[in-house]
Amino acid sequence: MKESAAKNRILDVASRLFYEQGYNSTGINQIIEEAEIARASLYNHFPSKRDLLTSYIQRAEDIWFEELEAFVGHIKNPKKKLLALFDHRISRQLKFNFGGCRFIKVGAELPNDDLAAFELIDHQKSRLKEYIHQLLLEINPKNELLQNLEMLNETIFLLIEGATVTAGITKNPEALQSAKKIAETLLGQ
Q1: pTM
Q2: Alpha-helix runs per DSSP H in the chain
Q3: 46-79: per-residue pLDDT in tens?
Q4: Over 3-44, what HEC string results?
Q5: Where is the HTH tetR-type domain (predicted)?
């Protein structure tokens, strides 16, 4: 069943505002005003701001992986595809003016006991880690550098995540470019 236009408009506005100004700094009244909907419409689709947050995180994950697939889907070589993950992150950071990772940003605003929200955020990160893992399995497993697949998987994941955070702070892609070179070295020729 298709989502209503009002629900999509609410999610579009909330997504933009949560990313640009933060979840805690975004009020329901601002979302209602900018989405140009009635208060009842918002609460019909999202009984609380917390419910809106859940939908935001889930939708952001789906969009993130759709965009990733569009960016790297045409690449057949698994090593090149893995390295293109860094290019994808650079592209996203340029597109969003080095605003950082939306999942990390919202996670930084949540209280430590909001385990359900952290599970949603962790789901996106775990899904990325699994994506990297599958690409590593496609790369020649006889390569000596791939003997400890789990360590390499974790290293590349942390390179991507750490470089994304650094790019958001420094407002330039150098950390992601350096991380890509490190990953390329780790993967060998």
Answers
A1: 0.89
A2: 5-21, 28-35, 39-45, 49-72, 78-95, 102-109, 115-138, 149-170, 174-187
A3: 999 999 999 999 999 999 999 999 999 999 999 9
A4: CCHHHHHHHHHHHHHHHHHCCCCCCHHHHHHHHCCCHHHHHH
A5: 4-64
pLDDT in tens, 137-174: 888 655 555 568 888 999 999 999 999 999 999 999 99
Cα-Cα-Cα-Cα dihedral sign, residues 105, 106, 112, 116: negative
Q: Which CATH superfamily is domain 1-47 in?
A: Homeodomain-like (1.10.10.60)
Q: Which residues contact 152 (CB under 8 A, 6 or more apart)?
A: 136, 145, 146, 186
**Residue 91, both tokens:** 């592209």
Position 2 pLDDT exceeds 90: no
Per-domain residue ranges for the chain? 1-47, 57-187
